[in-house]
Amino acid sequence: EAQVTQNPRYLITVTGKKLTVTCSQNMNHEYMSWYRQDPGLGLRQIYYSMNVEVTDKGDVPEGYKVSRKEKRNFPLILESPSPNQTSLYFCASSLGPTVSGNTIYFGEGSWLTVV
Amino acid sequence: AQSVTQLDSQVPVFEEAPVELRCNYSSSVSVYLFWYVQYPNQGLQLLLKYLSGSTLVESINGFEAEFNKSQTSFHLRKPSVHISDTAEYFCAVGLSGTYKYIFGTGTRLKVLA
Q: Which of B90, B93, B3 minimizes the C-alpha distance to B51?
Protein backbone atom coordinates (compact mmCIF):
# COMPACT_ATOMS: atom_id res chain seq x y z
CA GLU A 1 0.00 0.00 0.00
CA ALA A 2 1.31 3.43 -1.00
CA GLN A 3 1.78 5.58 2.04
CA VAL A 4 3.60 8.34 3.82
CA THR A 5 4.39 7.44 7.42
CA GLN A 6 5.17 9.97 10.13
CA ASN A 7 6.31 9.40 13.69
CA PRO A 8 5.48 10.29 16.36
CA ARG A 9 1.81 11.05 15.78
CA TYR A 10 1.49 12.88 19.08
CA LEU A 11 4.20 14.52 21.15
CA ILE A 12 4.36 16.91 24.08
CA THR A 13 7.80 18.33 24.71
CA VAL A 14 9.45 21.15 26.61
CA THR A 15 10.99 24.32 25.28
CA GLY A 16 14.54 23.80 24.07
CA LYS A 17 14.57 20.01 23.96
CA LYS A 18 15.65 18.89 20.51
CA LEU A 19 13.25 16.61 18.69
CA THR A 20 12.96 14.88 15.34
CA VAL A 21 9.81 13.94 13.48
CA THR A 22 10.50 11.15 11.03
CA CYS A 23 8.87 10.75 7.63
CA SER A 24 9.12 7.86 5.23
CA GLN A 25 7.44 7.17 1.89
CA ASN A 26 7.29 3.90 -0.05
CA MET A 27 6.39 5.27 -3.48
CA ASN A 28 9.90 6.11 -4.71
CA HIS A 29 8.88 9.75 -4.95
CA GLU A 30 11.53 12.34 -5.68
CA TYR A 31 9.77 15.24 -4.03
CA MET A 32 9.09 15.46 -0.30
CA SER A 33 7.92 18.32 1.83
CA TRP A 34 6.91 19.38 5.32
CA TYR A 35 3.92 21.55 6.14
CA ARG A 36 2.46 22.93 9.32
CA GLN A 37 -1.25 23.46 9.74
CA ASP A 38 -2.54 26.16 12.06
CA PRO A 39 -6.12 27.36 12.57
CA GLY A 40 -7.06 30.10 10.13
CA LEU A 41 -3.74 29.84 8.30
CA GLY A 42 -4.19 26.63 6.35
CA LEU A 43 -1.09 24.69 5.36
CA ARG A 44 2.21 26.46 5.15
CA GLN A 45 5.28 24.88 3.67
CA ILE A 46 8.33 24.59 5.93
CA TYR A 47 10.92 22.88 3.74
CA TYR A 48 10.95 20.76 0.63
CA SER A 49 13.33 18.43 -1.10
CA MET A 50 13.56 17.79 -4.83
CA ASN A 51 15.78 14.72 -4.43
CA VAL A 52 18.49 13.20 -2.26
CA GLU A 53 20.76 15.88 -0.79
CA VAL A 54 18.70 18.66 -2.41
CA THR A 55 16.55 20.73 -0.06
CA ASP A 56 15.19 24.25 0.00
CA LYS A 57 13.26 26.56 2.27
CA GLY A 58 9.52 26.93 2.06
CA ASP A 59 7.48 29.78 3.45
CA VAL A 60 8.13 29.28 7.18
CA PRO A 61 11.53 27.61 7.65
CA GLU A 62 12.69 29.46 10.79
CA GLY A 63 13.41 27.14 13.69
CA TYR A 64 13.45 23.96 11.57
CA LYS A 65 16.04 21.82 9.83
CA VAL A 66 15.72 18.96 7.40
CA SER A 67 17.92 16.42 5.72
CA ARG A 68 17.50 14.06 2.77
CA LYS A 69 20.15 11.38 2.90
CA GLU A 70 17.94 8.69 1.42
CA LYS A 71 15.17 9.00 -1.12
CA ARG A 72 12.51 7.53 1.12
CA ASN A 73 13.20 9.51 4.31
CA PHE A 74 12.84 13.19 5.09
CA PRO A 75 13.07 13.96 8.83
CA LEU A 76 12.09 17.30 10.32
CA ILE A 77 14.34 18.52 13.11
CA LEU A 78 13.49 21.11 15.74
CA GLU A 79 16.83 21.97 17.32
CA SER A 80 15.37 24.14 20.09
CA PRO A 81 11.58 23.99 20.04
CA SER A 82 9.56 26.96 21.20
CA PRO A 83 5.85 27.25 22.05
CA ASN A 84 5.10 28.98 18.74
CA GLN A 85 6.04 25.72 17.03
CA THR A 86 3.06 24.01 18.61
CA SER A 87 1.18 22.84 15.55
CA LEU A 88 -0.01 19.96 13.41
CA TYR A 89 2.73 18.86 11.04
CA PHE A 90 2.31 17.00 7.76
CA CYS A 91 4.89 15.27 5.68
CA ALA A 92 4.07 14.91 2.00
CA SER A 93 5.54 13.45 -1.15
CA SER A 94 4.91 13.50 -4.88
CA LEU A 95 6.44 12.05 -7.99
CA GLY A 96 7.99 15.30 -9.12
CA PRO A 97 7.43 18.98 -9.69
CA THR A 98 4.07 20.52 -10.36
CA VAL A 99 4.99 20.97 -14.01
CA SER A 100 3.10 17.74 -14.57
CA GLY A 101 0.35 18.49 -12.07
CA ASN A 102 1.59 15.81 -9.69
CA THR A 103 -0.63 14.87 -6.79
CA ILE A 104 0.70 15.30 -3.27
CA TYR A 105 0.37 12.38 -0.88
CA PHE A 106 0.16 13.29 2.78
CA GLY A 107 1.02 11.50 5.97
CA GLU A 108 -1.53 11.36 8.77
CA GLY A 109 0.00 14.24 10.67
CA SER A 110 1.98 14.76 13.85
CA TRP A 111 0.51 16.79 16.67
CA LEU A 112 3.32 18.62 18.42
CA THR A 113 2.86 20.61 21.62
CA VAL A 114 5.76 22.61 23.05
CA VAL A 115 5.30 23.76 26.66
CA ALA B 1 2.50 37.16 -5.65
CA GLN B 2 0.50 33.99 -5.85
CA SER B 3 -2.33 33.33 -3.43
CA VAL B 4 -5.36 31.14 -2.85
CA THR B 5 -8.48 32.44 -1.15
CA GLN B 6 -11.22 30.31 0.31
CA LEU B 7 -13.91 32.76 1.17
CA ASP B 8 -15.81 30.66 3.71
CA SER B 9 -14.13 29.26 6.78
CA GLN B 10 -17.21 27.23 7.76
CA VAL B 11 -20.21 26.03 5.79
CA PRO B 12 -23.09 24.30 7.59
CA VAL B 13 -25.59 22.55 5.34
CA PHE B 14 -28.39 20.06 5.85
CA GLU B 15 -28.09 16.54 4.55
CA GLU B 16 -29.22 16.09 0.93
CA ALA B 17 -28.93 19.82 0.26
CA PRO B 18 -26.54 21.18 -2.39
CA VAL B 19 -23.30 22.88 -1.40
CA GLU B 20 -20.69 25.10 -3.03
CA LEU B 21 -17.28 25.76 -1.53
CA ARG B 22 -15.59 28.73 -3.10
CA CYS B 23 -11.97 29.07 -4.15
CA ASN B 24 -10.26 31.92 -5.96
CA TYR B 25 -6.62 32.16 -6.85
CA SER B 26 -4.14 34.72 -8.05
CA SER B 27 -1.07 33.79 -10.05
CA SER B 28 1.20 35.28 -12.67
CA VAL B 29 2.14 31.82 -14.00
CA SER B 30 0.12 28.88 -15.22
CA VAL B 31 -1.38 26.78 -12.47
CA TYR B 32 -2.78 23.36 -11.79
CA LEU B 33 -5.74 23.29 -9.43
CA PHE B 34 -6.55 20.83 -6.70
CA TRP B 35 -9.11 20.15 -4.02
CA TYR B 36 -8.00 18.12 -1.03
CA VAL B 37 -10.23 16.78 1.76
CA GLN B 38 -9.22 16.22 5.36
CA TYR B 39 -11.45 13.98 7.47
CA PRO B 40 -11.14 14.29 11.26
CA ASN B 41 -7.79 13.08 12.61
CA GLN B 42 -6.51 12.21 9.17
CA GLY B 43 -4.13 13.62 6.60
CA LEU B 44 -5.21 15.34 3.42
CA GLN B 45 -6.43 13.27 0.47
CA LEU B 46 -6.79 14.37 -3.13
CA LEU B 47 -10.43 14.89 -4.06
CA LEU B 48 -10.03 16.11 -7.64
CA LYS B 49 -7.71 18.10 -9.83
CA TYR B 50 -7.68 20.18 -12.98
CA LEU B 51 -4.63 19.94 -15.20
CA SER B 52 -5.94 20.76 -18.67
CA GLY B 53 -8.78 19.97 -21.06
CA SER B 54 -12.38 20.02 -19.90
CA THR B 55 -12.90 22.70 -17.30
CA LEU B 56 -15.34 20.54 -15.34
CA VAL B 57 -13.74 17.80 -13.27
CA GLU B 58 -15.45 15.22 -11.11
CA SER B 59 -14.56 13.03 -8.17
CA ILE B 60 -15.71 9.48 -7.53
CA ASN B 61 -17.93 10.53 -4.62
CA GLY B 62 -20.09 13.06 -6.44
CA PHE B 63 -18.14 16.28 -6.05
CA GLU B 64 -17.30 18.40 -9.06
CA ALA B 65 -15.34 21.56 -9.65
CA GLU B 66 -15.19 23.94 -12.57
CA PHE B 67 -12.15 25.90 -13.61
CA ASN B 68 -13.08 29.43 -14.61
CA LYS B 69 -10.03 31.15 -16.01
CA SER B 70 -11.61 34.57 -16.45
CA GLN B 71 -12.76 34.64 -12.84
CA THR B 72 -9.68 32.75 -11.58
CA SER B 73 -11.95 30.44 -9.63
CA PHE B 74 -12.20 26.72 -8.96
CA HIS B 75 -15.35 26.27 -6.89
CA LEU B 76 -16.29 22.86 -5.52
CA ARG B 77 -19.89 21.68 -5.70
CA LYS B 78 -22.00 18.73 -4.74
CA PRO B 79 -25.73 18.52 -5.56
CA SER B 80 -26.64 16.46 -2.50
CA VAL B 81 -24.39 16.09 0.53
CA HIS B 82 -24.19 13.25 3.05
CA ILE B 83 -23.26 13.24 6.70
CA SER B 84 -20.04 11.48 5.70
CA ASP B 85 -18.98 14.55 3.68
CA THR B 86 -18.34 16.41 6.92
CA ALA B 87 -14.67 17.37 6.66
CA GLU B 88 -12.32 20.24 5.95
CA TYR B 89 -11.72 21.03 2.30
CA PHE B 90 -8.60 22.71 0.98
CA CYS B 91 -8.15 24.33 -2.37
CA ALA B 92 -4.57 24.36 -3.69
CA VAL B 93 -2.69 25.55 -6.72
CA GLY B 94 0.48 24.08 -8.14
CA LEU B 95 2.63 26.56 -9.99
CA SER B 96 3.60 25.21 -13.38
CA GLY B 97 7.30 24.49 -13.78
CA THR B 98 8.01 24.67 -10.05
CA TYR B 99 7.82 22.57 -6.91
CA LYS B 100 5.58 25.15 -5.34
CA TYR B 101 2.12 24.42 -4.01
CA ILE B 102 -0.02 27.04 -2.31
CA PHE B 103 -2.91 26.03 -0.11
CA GLY B 104 -5.97 27.99 0.90
CA THR B 105 -6.93 28.32 4.55
CA GLY B 106 -9.58 25.61 4.30
CA THR B 107 -13.37 25.41 4.57
CA ARG B 108 -15.01 23.30 7.23
CA LEU B 109 -18.08 21.63 5.79
CA LYS B 110 -20.50 20.43 8.44
CA VAL B 111 -23.42 18.37 7.22
CA LEU B 112 -26.40 18.43 9.58
CA ALA B 113 -29.00 15.69 9.93
A: B93
